[in-house]
């Protein structure tokens, strides 16, 4: 057959062409400029100020000059406060060459990170079992919270500075000007605002180092996320706050007397946030003098797990913690699957999200007078005694070419408009690619008079559909609604406007979207650390940025949002509250106090549940829901030191030379036995315990050291919550403390006693009759 060799030759030519194209593409990629971060560890000693900053920028430019041609040499950021390094536009070859420099720790592509109230703080107070009285310490206005996010809306009443004293003298920050943002936009409450925009050319070729160009743009929040988070953490008390009549009450932050400094690193939530800008914001915030940093930003669980020394959040947080700044981060919104938690470095306080005792319900009234309560935030004009509209299931309105499965899921383009227009549409949520908002937009575009969504997922976090009638029900109620549609010739319904339900039980519940542990970076540190309200949180919002404004209404100054982004500033506010009462406490002590006093019980006195109804584990909620009032007086704390974190890096396999650069400690050496992940669980003094592997016949011993921050001459007795098949023994069983700040060490020994494979959970609790110090554990049984 003469055609066969010809066919083989054509295939060979095609293969050679594909290889050539691939090689050309690879070569082009090597010469394409991208933003890279060059991380150089701790900065040299020698004070601060403009002179040192200029010297370090000059050194960075000189380093760049050794690799990059002069006409292509640009720095976008220079880091020189909490840590040293820079961001620059580089080719892959130039980045590789810089990574070999003796002063460089790591070089990595600038990653794109994502953005991850009237009732929540009252609910947390109620969970404590008592309310603050004259004996509770008053919060100080000297504590400063840095919010790294999308900026700030300074006119919000949550940032009113009435009655506030002078700005702390240690504050060294700026109030940067820009379009629609003046220096006068800052006040005694909002004391600082920075913006990180298009800074390409911050240091240009042959330019005077003194002539540093200011970034373009403005600190003003054009998204709303940053304003919402800042007011949740430290908003002033605003009486009568509400969202079009819902969630009425006094809005306030966790530390209403604290100061706010805003660092805008994100401009549009759909475009993400620059990792190099976030690093610069952390560097500036530490230098400015903040006490707490709140970061509701991070990677998603589907991203490649970064090395700790190429993760901008982990790097910046380490150096902030080194300098006494508490860094609080959101755990991510990729739950409820396991191993989805992000921002899990041990020096970060990682926060999961929960519900509070308030829910938003919209009732669905069928033509047969049956009523179903659904989850929603809508301002429908339909009423109980008003008009009923025809009810149609999506599969019944499918186009000729659309499969019934797509139409039943409100898939775009799957519905025949003439069969939907003027009716209330019913859809299901079995296709996770089509979000609730997309389904709502499909229904609205089809001319529907409303949408009933049958989907149990994320029901605890209702979406806001403004005037469009919408309600979400679970599968049981949904089955009854579908049976009704099939049982009558002319099914009808109405969707009523939302009402808020107060004192809702059970609460808290772990939010379905909240990311779960164990952490992908290391199973030997239990993550998330704890849980805070993150569902349907009312907080400040730029009125010009309202996505959904009900018909005939003006934009609101408040909005209701859900996410671990909302949980994070709750903990940042609680951390600032503790810092104001205990100025000497380190970030690790504050974290410990919040974790060991957290509750694993709901407002029914039962174990906290996950959104599925199952009892929540420590991989769902960490130590439990924060109780800031209890954390004021925790009794004992676990102070995780910088040395612990450096040892952690050793156990993870980093070399002494690298850790010396990171830490700035020229004398540091790794402990004997490193690297060994088991040593992380055994000896890093963390306020929780995670054993990554326990096998039969090989007991696993963990040591911890407790510090007394309570009364003198205290005796603590241990109690153990152990699951069946797991032997847990603590030695000694009593800890004696003769004075405040005294320490005592103990050992927890785990042994396989017939437990089933997989993770087993429990807790070790120390009590002196006044304090209860609970340390949760997770043990992976093999």
From TrEMBL:
The record ties this protein, via InterPro entries, to: PA_domain (IPR003137), Peptidase_S8/S53_dom (IPR000209), Peptidase_S8/S53_dom_sf (IPR036852), Peptidase_S8_His-AS (IPR022398), Peptidase_S8_Ser-AS (IPR023828), Peptidase_S8_subtilisin-rel (IPR015500), Peptidases_S8_3 (IPR034197), S8pro/Inhibitor_I9 (IPR010259)
Q: Which residues form a coiled coil?
A: none
Q: Gene3D superfamilies under this entry? A: 2.60.40.2310, 3.50.30.30, Peptidase S8 propeptide/proteinase inhibitor I9, Peptidase S8/S53 domain
What GO molecular-function term can you cite, just one? serine-type endopeptidase activity
Q: Boundaries of each Peptidase S8/S53 domain copy? A: 142-605
Domain Subtilisin-like protease fibronectin type-III: residue ranges: 684-779
**Record keywords:** Hydrolase, Protease, Serine protease, Signal
The answer to keyword Chloroplast applying to this record is no
One Pfam family from the UniProt entry? fn3_6
Q: Where is the active site?
A: 149 (charge relay system), 225 (charge relay system), 565 (charge relay system)
Domain PA residue range list = 389-480
Please give a single GO biological process term from the UniProt record: proteolysis
Task: Give the Inhibitor I9 domain ranges.
Answer: 35-115
Q: Is Hydrolase among this UniProt entry's keywords?
A: yes
What start and end residues bound the annotated signal peptide? 1-28
Family as reported in the entry's similarity comment: Belongs to the peptidase S8 family.
Q: Which PANTHER family match?
A: PROPROTEIN CONVERTASE SUBTILISIN/KEXIN
Protein name as annotated: Subtilisin-like protease
Write down the species.
Aegilops tauschii subsp. strangulata
């Amino acid at each position: 057959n003469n055609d066969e060799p010809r066919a083989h030759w054509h295939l060979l030519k095609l293969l050679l062409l594909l290889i050539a194209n691939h090689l050309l593409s690879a070569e082009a990629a090597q010469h394409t400029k991208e933003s890279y971060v060059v991380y150089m560890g701790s900065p040299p000693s020698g004070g601060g100020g403009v002179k040192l900053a200029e010297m370090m920028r000059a050194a960075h430019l000189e380093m760049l000059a050794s690799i990059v041609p002069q006409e292509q040499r640009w720095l976008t950021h220079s880091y020189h406060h909490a840590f040293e390094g820079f961001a620059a536009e580089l080719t892959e070859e130039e980045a590789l060459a810089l990574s070999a420099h003796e002063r460089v720790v790591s070089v990595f592509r600038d990653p794109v990170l994502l953005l991850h109230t009237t009732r929540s703080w009252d609910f947390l107070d109620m969970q404590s079992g008592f309310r603050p009285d004259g004996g509770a310490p008053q919060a100080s206005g000297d504590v400063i919270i840095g919010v790294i996010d999308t900026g700030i809306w300074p006119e919000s009443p949550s940032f009113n500075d009435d009655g506030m004293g002078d700005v702390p003298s240690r504050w060294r920050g700026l109030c940067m000007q820009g379009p629609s943002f003046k220096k006068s936009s800052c006040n005694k409450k909002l004391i600082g605002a920075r913006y990180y925009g298009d800074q390409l050319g911050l240091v240009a070729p042959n330019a005077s180092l003194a002539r540093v160009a200011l970034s373009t743009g403005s600190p003003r929040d054009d998204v709303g996320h940053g304003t919402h988070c800042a007011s949740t953490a430290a908003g002033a008390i605003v009486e009568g706050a509400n969202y079009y009549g819902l969630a009425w009450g006094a809005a306030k932050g966790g530390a209403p007397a604290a100061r706010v400094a805003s660092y805008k690193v994100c401009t549009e939530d759909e475009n993400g946030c620059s990792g190099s800008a976030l690093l610069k914001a952390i560097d500036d915030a530490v230098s400015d003098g903040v006490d707490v940093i709140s970061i509701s930003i991070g990677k998603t669980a589907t991203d490649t797990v970064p090395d700790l020394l190429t993760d901008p959040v982990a790097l910046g947080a380490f150096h902030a913690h080194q300098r006494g700044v508490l860094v609080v981060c959101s755990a991510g919104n990729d739950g409820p699957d396991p191993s989805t938690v992000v921002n899990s470095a041990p020096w970060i306080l990682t926060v999961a999200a929960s519900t509070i005792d308030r829910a938003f319900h919209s009732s669905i009234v069928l033509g047969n007078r049956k009523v179903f309560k659904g989850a929603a935030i809508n301002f429908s004009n339909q009423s109980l005694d008003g008009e009923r509209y025809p009810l149609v299931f999506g599969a019944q309105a499918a186009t000729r070419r659309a499969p019934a499965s797509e139409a039943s899921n409100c898939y775009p383009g799957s519905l025949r408009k003439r069969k939907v227009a003027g009716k209330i549409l019913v859809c299901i949520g079995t296709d996770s690619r089509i979000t609730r908002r997309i389904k709502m937009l499909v229904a609205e575009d089809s001319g529907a008079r409303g949408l009933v969504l049958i989907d149990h997922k994320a029901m605890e976090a209702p979406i806001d559909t403004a005037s469009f009638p919408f309600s979400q029900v679970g599968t049981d109620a949904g089955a009854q609604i579908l049976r009704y549609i099939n049982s009558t010739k002319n099914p009808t319904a109405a969707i009523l406007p939302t009402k808020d339900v107060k004192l809702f039980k059970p609460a808290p519940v772990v939010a379905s979207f909240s990311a779960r542990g164990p952490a992908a970076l290391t199973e030997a540190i239990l993550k998330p650390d704890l849980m805070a309200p993150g569902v349907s949180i009312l907080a400040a919002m730029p009125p010009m940025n309202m996505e959904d404004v009900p018909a005939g209404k003006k934009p609101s100054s408040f909005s209701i949002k859900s996410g671990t982004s909302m949980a994070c500033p709750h903990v940042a506010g609680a951390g600032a509250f503790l810092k104001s009462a205990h100025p000497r406490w380190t970030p690790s002590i504050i974290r410990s106090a919040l974790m060991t006093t957290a509750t694993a019980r709901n407002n029914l006195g039962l174990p906290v549940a996950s959104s599925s109804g199952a009892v929540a584990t420590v991989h769902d909620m960490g130590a439990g829901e924060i109780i800031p009032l209890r954390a004021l007086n925790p009794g004992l704390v676990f102070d995780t030191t910088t040395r612990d974190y450096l040892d952690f890096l050793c156990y993870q396999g980093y070399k002494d030379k690298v850790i010396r650069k990171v830490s700035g400690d020229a004398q540091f050496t790794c402990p004997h036995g490193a690297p060994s992940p088991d040593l992380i669980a055994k000896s890093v003094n963390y306020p929780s315990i995670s054993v990554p592997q326990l096998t039969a016949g090989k007991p696993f011993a963990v040591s911890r050291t407790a510090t007394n921050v309570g009364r003198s001459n205290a005796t603590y007795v241990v109690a153990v919550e152990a699951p069946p098949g797991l032997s847990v023994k603590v030695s000694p069983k009593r800890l004696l403390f003769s004075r405040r700040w005294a320490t005592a060490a103990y050992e927890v020994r785990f042994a396989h006693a017939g437990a089933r494979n997989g993770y087993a959970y429990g807790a070790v609790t120390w009590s002196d009759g006044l304090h209860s110090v609970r340390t949760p554990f997770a043990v992976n049984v093999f």
